[in-house]
Amino acid sequence: MRSLSTVILAAVLALFATPVAQAATLAVPWNLLAALPAQLANPGGPPPGANDWSCRPSAAHPSPVVLVHGLGANQTVNWQTYSPLLKNNGYCVFSLTYGVPGDPLPIYQPGGLVRMEDSAAEFSRFVDKVLAATGAAKVSILGHSEGTVMPSYYVKFLGGASKVDKYVGLTPLWDGTTLYGLSHVYKWGQSIVDPILNPLCGSCTEFLAGSDFLTKMKSGNGQFQPGVQYTNILTRYDELVIPYTSGKGTGPNVRNIVLQDTCPLDFAEHAGLAADRNAAGHVLNALDPAHTRPVPCHPAGPLGS
Rounded to two decimals, what is the model's pTM? Predict the structure, then answer.
């Protein structure tokens, strides 16, 4: 019979030999419609994997990723796919709903409705909070639609260039959108439109081609700031960014990817890129260019794969 001390020693050794349980892999939906039950279950809440304020970036992924939603969306509906995907790939992930005028609505919280200059100031405060919590030197940005343009104001005018590493845009619109001729109508009737529209959506006219906001963004050294690596991911089937080539940029630190150039079977439209497998492969490569992987061509419908 073994002595009591031998039994205790064996138990201690067995305890330390027991492998620590791995964090559960989060489910990644590949369809935009997954946003609906998520919004109903947790209105306005962060998507799976986001806003773990105890997360510490790894050496492999030292920059936390901040997710920036589009016009009229929020962090819940925009990021049900990318947030768990990035978390599963070892990133610290953070998201916010920005640009909400007044108190958030109880059932749905549309964001991005105030002037982008004001949203950029809000975004700046959020980035500082992320950096303070994680101890990281910089963040990377993954934006969709308005979330590709609004943070550029922060980067250019609010000191963000020194705090941003990678800047990845889904359906960007650096040159704005003509939106079926609305940009031309607006130029003609700006004095009539602004008093009516601005209290409801201060950012809406800022997206239009030739707007004062975009003209200011192109001033000086342009929209793309030195030290930041930009990747633009576009779809030819974008029905809101017109022409879709408005999302292309130029510069030594800018890369443009049109999904259909390598995957003709991808029919994702503007919103659908938020749940698109092919776009996701390019996003992962853009965030970690030292370890890129081939992006297969997954057939995709308008709302995702």
Answer: 0.89
